[in-house]
Design brief:
Largest sheet of chain B: none
Oligomer: heterodimer
Helix content of chain B: 55-70%
Distance between the termini of chain B: 50 Å
Helix content of chain A: 55-70%
Number of helices of chain A: 11
Radius of gyration of chain B: 19 Å
Largest interface: A-B, 22 and 22 residues
Shape of chain B: rod-shaped
Distance between the termini of chain A: 47 Å
Shape of chain A: globular
Largest sheet of chain A: none
Structural class of chain A: mainly alpha
Number of helices of chain B: 2
Strand content of chain B: under 5%
Strand content of chain A: under 5%
Chain lengths: 186, 50
């Protein structure tokens, strides 16, 4: 087989580089899907199934892209979503600070998954994200003593699913939060 | 879901973690169903004939 200088420089079709490009293109598609569903997982206009599906797509984006890109993007998406959803409920200057925890929570939870989940194999690895997400949301709820302390908790989205929310009578809000977060990974 | 997705939705490759999650979810739903069926809230109990 004749190897020319051009073919030696240019990688052949179907190589790893192509695969990375294809995966990168799809990752942004998952981000768009997750981002479109995300406003329906917080506060007033809730669609229960969106709370289960949106994070699945977002997690796929974070796991496919480099952390240096995916984590700031996911944080910004969380922040913008909180701005969009709460714009009619919180007055303007306070809104920009009020939405910050939404972005930070997402960076910490998804970042912990990127950092730890691949190093811990099996069932324990799938618990990194739900444990971090629930712990961060719980701490924010404890630190904020106002009425909006737990406003971002995904457990609220399942209020119409009576058999599911019975779990709250045993574990509190955070048990259901943990279960919803667990679906993203398991 | 993402573990499944990463393994091409082949359940056999992530059988243990999927099984643990699904059994946990079924247990939660069974518990919730039982609580609703056997211990309904007072307002939902039928008091007929009044």
């Amino acid at each position: 087989m004749l190897i020319t200088q051009e073919s030696a420089i240019r990688p052949p079709r179907g190589t790893q580089l192509d695969a990375v490009r294809r995966r990168g293109w799809k990752a942004w598609l998952w981000l768009c899907l997750g981002g479109a569903l995300l406003p329906f997982t917080i506060f007033a206009n809730v669609v229960p199934v969106a709370a289960w599906l949106a994070p699945v797509f977002l997690m796929r984006f974070v796991r496919t892209m480099r952390a240096a890109i995916s984590l700031p993007v996911i944080g910004l998406l969380g922040y913008l979503t909180a701005l969009l959803v709460l714009r009619d409920s919180v007055p303007s200057p306070a809104l920009y600070f009020f939405a910050l925890p939404a972005g930070l929570t997402m960076i910490i939870s998804y970042g912990a998954d990127r950092l730890l989940a691949r190093r811990i194999s099996g069932v324990l690895g799938t618990l990194v994200f739900p444990a971090t997400d629930t712990a961060v949301n719980f701490l924010l709820g404890v630190l904020n003593q106002d009425a909006f302390a737990t406003v971002g908790a995904s457990a609220y989205t399942q209020a119409s699913g009576l058999p599911l929310i019975q779990l709250v009578s045993v574990t509190g809000l955070w048990g259901l939060n943990f279960l919803i977060a667990w679906l993203r990974l398991s | 879901m993402n573990d499944l997705w990463e393994h091409g939705f082949d359940v056999r490759k992530v059988l243990r973690s999927t099984a643990v999650f699904v059994s946990f979810l079924i247990a939660v739903l069974l518990f919730g169903g039982a609580q609703l069926a056997f211990f309904p809230p007072a307002a939902a109990r039928s008091e007929w004939p009044l």
